[in-house]
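During data preparation, a discrete fold description was generated, and the record follows.
___
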Amino acid sequence: MANTALLVMDVQQVIVDRIAGGTDYLVRLRRAIDAAHAAQLPVIYVVVGFRAGHPEISARNKSFSAISSGLGMAQDDPNVAIHPDVAPLAGDIVVTKKRVSAFTGSDLDVVLRSGDIDSLVLTGLATSGVVLSTLRQAADLDFRLTVLEDGCGDSDPEVHRVLTEKVFPRQADVVSIDEWITKVV
């Protein structure tokens, strides 16, 4: 596991409130983060954020054009901060992306290659968004992949189930946080 990093993706206040509010998601995720730290694995946070005025968002981009019409997501907006229950510790890396995948519009690939990381453990919100897009791109980049099924969440539980049970296993190992912790600690 020496070349493995835990990715904590889009666990920002505004996204947690919309997707995982009222669940024990953050408690589970904190356990995974703490286990990664205990095993001395890098923890990399990926956040979505834009400049004031959102010049990175095209009106042709259906997913992100709603953001530029009033939903915010400027990098300095407190609502886009990483949720305090899972906030980074000193030494954790924070990468800012401009699209759904953690790789697109960010320096994530440079960070991973520089750290000789070849295996990724994926967590985040939403399963059908950042997790799916990042998994697909990371698989094409030849990373070994693990998805922490209960370390992801989606506003549609059925979509989450289909992705984690039927789609993701084609390209990744899908395990629970507890199963993963027993392997790393």
Notes: The domain at 4-184 is CATH 3.40.50.850 (Rossmann fold). The chain has a mean pLDDT of 88. Helices lie at 13-19, 25-38, 62-71, 108-114, 127-140, 157-167, 177-184.
